[in-house]
Specification:
This is AAA+ ATPase domain-containing protein. GO terms for molecular function: ATP binding; ATP hydrolysis activity. It comes from Gonium pectorale (Green alga). Helices cover about 55% and strands about 10% of the residues. The protein starts with a helix and ends with a strand. A six-stranded mixed sheet has the order 1-3-4-5-2-6, with helices on both faces. With about 250 residues, it is α/β, with parallel strands linked by helices. It has ten helices and six strands. Helix 2 packs across helix 3 and helix 3 crosses helix 7. The chain has one domain: 3-Layer(aba) Sandwich (Rossmann fold).
Length: about 250
Amino acid sequence: MWGILAFNRLPAEVMTAAISAAVVSALGVWLVMMYMDPYGPARQQVKSRAASLGKRLNRRVELNQYEEQVAAQAIAPEDIRVVMQDVAGLEHITSDLELKVMAPLRHPHLYSTTLLKQARGVLLYGPPGTGKTMLAQALAREAGCFFLNLTASSVVSKWMGDSNRLVRAAFSLAAKLEPAIIFVDEVDALLGRRGGASEHEVTLLLKTEFMQLWDGVETNPAQRVFVVGATNRPWMLDEAVLRRFAIAYEVGY
């Protein structure tokens, strides 16, 4: 009798063990996928952001996973709450920006010849707390540009090759959202002098990639993408980067 009961109980025990093994296996696969794809959870959060960008532009915007990461830091011009009048004490800079930056962004067809060429880079330098970021946001608002906020921490990745992919994504996303301003806060941390003894090859490749993409923007007069950098230490910037910032303003007290 006992042997018969044990035999009848065996299939249920085997089934329970099989289900447990399947659950553990599925959990293991999920953990491996999460490890191999560290941006999975973040991508789900920003997909809605990409959809909202498409609605604002009245067209479908297809983004890859790296563009989605950058899009999480993108601000539409109508969502920026700062205007030029809010930036007190910098009237000499705001009036110059109106002529050299905002006018070309609003009327690109007037600046499509070699006789009247639009500059594609502005450097704002000065002590902390003087309104550099606010000025860049006001510029984007009044020029009707999307504002893409980049920092060294947002593009430098521990995963091989991802830093360059994120930089490429910033420029490709800006082209999809144009007119757009790529704002690099603490630009010296991202595009500092090259050739230091302690510089890693990855950071050198990142700087080269950024400048090559920037050159591509400058040689395409139809593209309305602009780079604005802010720094407290302009002397730390690479000379090649300084040359690309055709316009520079000291923002002081």
